[in-house]
Amino acid sequence: MKALVIRAFGGPEVLEEAELPDPVPGPGEARVRVHAVVVARTKDVAARAGKPPFAQQITSLPHVLGTEHAGVIDQVGPGLDDDLVGKRVAVSAVLSCSRCRACGLSREEACSEFRLVGIHRQGSYAEYCVVPVKNVREIPAEVGFVEAAALAANGGVASAQLDAGEVGLDTTVLVPGAGGALGATVAALAAFRGARVIGVDRRPPRLAGLPLVALDAAAQDLPERILEAVGSAGLDCVVDNLGVTALCEAYLPALGALGRVVVSGAINHDPIPIRLLQFYLRSQSLIGVRTGNRRQIDRLWADVSAGFRPPAGFVHEIPWTQVSDAHASIQSGGTHGQLVLTVDGS
Ligand SMILES: [Zn+2]
């Protein structure tokens, strides 16, 4: 098969096309003919550059990057039903051990042996990728592979965050960084689940078209604007994928009684300035979410079957022959939305 490999860590130019043996699925595994694969900032771009946290976990070169993807099952390993062959599927990248305490609680996201397709085993920048069958979800006929790959990447995490933050009908949620690929998916999914959404972004034009009240992160009076947009009941939840101190200081006063702050990001490793007096007097919670577990991913695909799609304009398709350009664009911060590589047949 054709694949994109790295033979050394370095700049985007180290990604090169190679001919590799077709992978063979083992027990409990399916082989996916890959049609679309996301380009991920930390798991692909930083790892390719040799940066933590994932590059150090790639133990052999050449290596095939590529995490969440979508395609068609073309072969299954021993013990699996042949009816799976031909199914159009999206694949999540998190590998769990099924043995540890977290896995026993169906909380695979906290697995003590947490591993990833594309880091700890060969990934999906390739014509074929072998994955555990528990990682695949059938996609509705009307959902394309590019959309499905983007949903597998951002939707599972978004679903987990909203689930942890109990965001649903008649709740108000604030999303800092709502103009990013993940933030926009969180905002759109929250609205789909019936929540009222307030989006904050340092580039407010990126919020145009999203189902939310848009606020400028750079506004001098951001705390007052948030309080005004929220109203007297206060925020039920904040889904914060940034962890920027100034933004936390702006939204925490608006967090209501029983409010939840869900965090899945800490871009500058900043401390979050929580004042404990307010926090306990209002019975508030701070919840860390690493990624989606099986139940939360199932819920995402149930929402997709019911009509949920990635927000318009946030998914960009690029032929996989242009992978180096895609990496360079993300590295330079010039990317808006989720880049998805389309994988051609040989
Ligand atoms: Zn485990």
Structure description:
Helices cover 25% and strands 25% of the residues. The chain is an alpha/beta fold. Strands 3, 4, 5, 8, 9, 16 and 17 form a 7-stranded mixed beta sheet that branches. The protein has a 6-stranded parallel beta sheet with strand order 12-11-10-13-14-15, sandwiched between helices. Residues 96-97, 99-100, 102-103, 111-113 line the site of zinc ion. The site of zinc ion has 9 residues, from helix 2.
Question: Which class of secondary structure composition applies to the elements?
Answer: alpha/beta
Output the CATH topology of the largest domain: Quinone Oxidoreductase, Chain A, domain 1
pLDDT averaged over residues: 96
Proportion of helical residues:
25-40%
Q: What's the count of strands?
A: 17
Question: What's the shape?
Answer: globular
Radius of gyration: 20 Å
Small molecules (ligands, ions, cofactors) in the structure: zinc ion
What fraction of residues sit in β-strands? 25-35%
List low-pLDDT spans.
none
* Largest β-sheet summary: 7 strands, mixed
Set out the fold topology.
Elements lengths: L1 E5 L8 E5 L9 E10 L2 H8 L20 E8 L11 E4 L2 E2 L5 H4 L10 E2 L11 E5 L3 E3 L6 H20 L7 E5 L4 H12 L3 E6 L11 E4 L5 H9 L4 E6 L4 H7 L3 E9 L12 H6 L3 E4 L5 H12 L9 E5 L3 H9 L6 E5 L4
Parallel strand pairs: 10-11, 10-13, 11-12, 13-14, 14-15, 16-17
Antiparallel strand pairs: 1-2, 3-4, 3-8, 3-17, 4-5, 5-9, 6-7
Helix pairs in contact: 1-9, 3-4, 3-8
The chain binds zinc ion.
